[in-house]
Amino acid sequence: MKSLVPLLNLKLNKDQVTNKDQFTWKEKLKCSHILYLLIFTSNMSNVNPPLPPPPAPQPQTGAGVQGTQAPRPGTPAPGALAPAPAPGTFPLPPPIPPIPPTPVVFSLVPADTTGILDYTSCQGIEIYKAATRSLYEDPSDNFHVDAPGLQTFLGLLQNRGKESKWDFDIPQDLSHPLANLQSLLNFHGRFTLEHIQAFCRTCVNTCSWATQENMQIVKCILTSLSLTSFRKVQVWHAQWHIESATLAPF
Prior knowledge:
By secondary structure, this protein is mainly alpha-helical. 33% of the residues lie in helices and 4% in strands. The chain has a domain at 144-246. The chain is built from 7 helices and 4 strands.
């Protein structure tokens, strides 16, 4: 405000104004305008002007910087966020890697497996149904437990055994169960009833494939018998059961 004092103390010529009352309203108005402009200008000069914003840092690329390479057009700079997708569009999911193929285990028949069958699975149920169905397509051809039909019955049972992986071999010496094996279908007249009973007790009521195999053979034989033949077999019920278990070799 000190700079305004010389301007406020206006010095008029003596020949123009000699008294305060001689100021006309136009001159007073003129002085008021000058005063307003001076105050406004002085206030604006005392305010520090705002500093300009600092320039944005430019990425250093090219030959001037060693070990750096200019980013390709359209690729975000290192550390920058990926651009947001356009409204109404969705980003594509990552590709699903291919599933490697499961190796196939070779087998001649569906029942050619190791270990016991799982009868709670569809595969186990289908294997059981295929193994225990009748040996004869026509029910009128079922085995009548007579001499003329015996060889046909044994031949069909042997073929079903190959499909179902049944084992009809019985050791001649029970102390060596894996030596001197003979098929019961071909040498059924060489074994006594006591020998077969002793052999069956080694695997009866055990959680093994031998027990499952035995039940499949029994079900297949009973399904392949005529009603008259089943009545004949029922007479000897006690001889082909041990500990309430049905045994196929009998």
